[in-house]
Design a protein that fits this description.
alpha/beta, 8-stranded mixed β-sheet, globular
């Protein structure tokens, strides 16, 4: 596609996520990017009408009506997870490339169906794991050197949003996807425990993963917390890195200098540490260029569409995160049954 030719996009689902996609597409359009926000779809006519009026685009109650109204190049799918496959089917068949909000689907069968349709119609599917585009994550990726231990905390206050899925598929899946991409090794063992608290699905969960390469990762996710926490810490030889998703900052503690010391030097360092705990440690705040992850994600998606390239977060990546999340849920259910919960 010629670089100057605008991509015509629609947003399917005008709830909280969909409205943010609408906003970002319009901001990119107003900033002069070659993209045109062309339509919004929501099965609730009032919601579709409100979004259509706010963004000055046609609103439709069905995907079929939207497709019949005029040509489109791509779409964001922001409907509830259980409807992802049924929404993707007519869009892919009509030749649209898709950015599908996480999780990719409600089941592996649905995820496989979406990917099969994408291959059949020669379309691009990007999974909406926007934390991959968090500037702090992108900065951390540049510092990787055989990470061996991860500790993740993603805590949120309770809201009625996304109660169609449990906390693993709602919140933890962000961190599962990020860690899978950083470790790049198959998962060997899953241990998990979780409980429903304020809904009829698991609202708080703790997970321990061990990878084939020996890396271990602990995850805690809660949507019944009194505070909001979005942090990931990891260790690798001679380094400790602490990442804050919300603040978009990255701190690195480096002990490389101590690694090259002879026994006498190490003894001297030990004496210094006994007097000053931070002796021998190099604390460095890594430079992180701030940016809105959703805007970076959508811009990356549009770039992949225009170049006909594999997205940074492919549909297969989305399936892998979903498969791991579902395996964790099975482990949680098995633990609950074993202890009689």
């Amino acid at each position: 596609m010629p670089p100057s030719q605008p991509l015509r996009v629609a947003v399917v689902g005008a709830g909280a996520f969909g409205r943010n996609h609408l906003r970002v597409y319009r901001e990119l359009e107003q900033a002069g990017e070659p993209v045109v926000l062309g339509a919004v779809v929501d099965r609730d006519p009032a919601v579709a009408g409100e979004a259509a009026a706010k963004f000055g685009v046609p609103g439709f109650a069905t995907i079929e009506a939207c497709l019949a109204a005029g040509p489109l190049d791509a779409a964001s799918v922001c409907v509830p997870t259980v409807h992802h496959a049924s929404a993707a089917e007519p869009l892919l068949a009509a030749g649209l490339d898709l950015l599908i909000e996480k999780p990719l689907a409600a089941s592996l069968a649905d995820a496989d169906y979406i990917l099969e349709l994408a291959r059949k119609h020669g379309r691009i599917v990007q999974a909406g794991h926007l934390e991959r585009f968090n500037p702090a994550v992108m900065a951390a990726r540049q510092q990787l050197c055989r990470p061996m231990f991860f500790e993740s905390h993603r805590l949120s206050v309770f809201t009625p949003r996304s109660l169609d899925v449990d906390v693993v598929l709602d919140l933890m899946i962000h961190d599962l996807d990020v860690v899978l991409s950083l470790v790049a090794s198959p998962v060997r063992e899953v241990r998990a425990v979780g409980l429903p608290v304020l809904s009829n699905k698991v609202d708080i969960a703790n997970v321990r993963l061990e990878f084939e390469n020996g890396c271990v990762a602990n995850f805690t996710a809660s949507r019944v917390s009194t505070e909001r926490v979005r942090k990931l810490r990891f260790f690798q030889p001679h380094q400790y890195l602490s990442l804050d998703f919300a603040r978009q900052d990255l701190l690195m503690i480096d002990v490389t200098a101590a690694a090259g010391m002879d026994p006498a030097q190490l003894a001297a360092l030990a004496q210094m540490v006994s007097q000053h705990p931070s002796a021998g440690l190099s604390l460095k705040k890594i430079s992180v260029e701030q940016g809105e992850p959703l805007r970076l994600e959508i811009a990356s998606f549009l770039g992949a569409v225009r170049a006909r390239a594999t997205p940074v977060v492919s549909g297969e990546d989305g399936r892998a995160a979903l498969a791991l999340a579902l395996e964790i849920n099975r482990a949680i259910a098995a633990h609950a049954e074993r202890i009689g919960l």
